[in-house]
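From the shared-data thread, chain only:
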Amino acid sequence: MLFKSLAPNAAIFWLAVFTPMFSVAVMAEACPAFETPMASANAGCLIVENQEVLMLKQWNAKWALPGGTAEAGEAAQCTALRETWEETGLKVNVGGLIHIYENGFHLFRCERRADQPKLNEKRPFTVEVLDVAWVGVEKFDGLNWRFSNQRQVIEDWLTAQP
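Structure, as C-alpha cells:
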C-alpha cells in the first residue's frame, strides 16, 4: 500500500494492485476533515449492528476489531477509517472516541455507511485478514482473541448503551 498525505488530516489512500507485469494504483477515498482531529495514533473501529460486532479473523487465526498502525502525521480518526477499509473493504463514518488502551491504541465508535454492503468479499488486503464476520456477544467465549482487553471494553460499551 502506498500512502500520500496532501495536508494535515487530508489524505488519499492508494491501494497498489500488483500483477507479474505491472502495478496499478487505485484511489480509495480521502479522509474527511474532522471537527476535532486527534493526534496521530494507532486506531480502529467498533462497529455494532443488531447487537453484533464486526470482527476480523487475522492471519494468526486470532480475532480482533478492525484497526492498525497510523501513517506519519495521520489523525487517529483517519487511521481508524483507513484501516477499517483496508481490512474489511467497508467504508465507515468515524464517530466518537470510546477508549484509549494502555499501548495508545484509540478505539472509535464507527458506523457502516448506508451505501455499503453488510460484508464486502472484495477486501483490499486479504493476506493479513482471513475472514470478516458479524459476531454476537454470546459467541465471544469461543473466540481466540488477539487482544483480550478488547473484549472487556466492547462488553462494557454495549452494556452502557440504552
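The longest helix spans residues 76-88.
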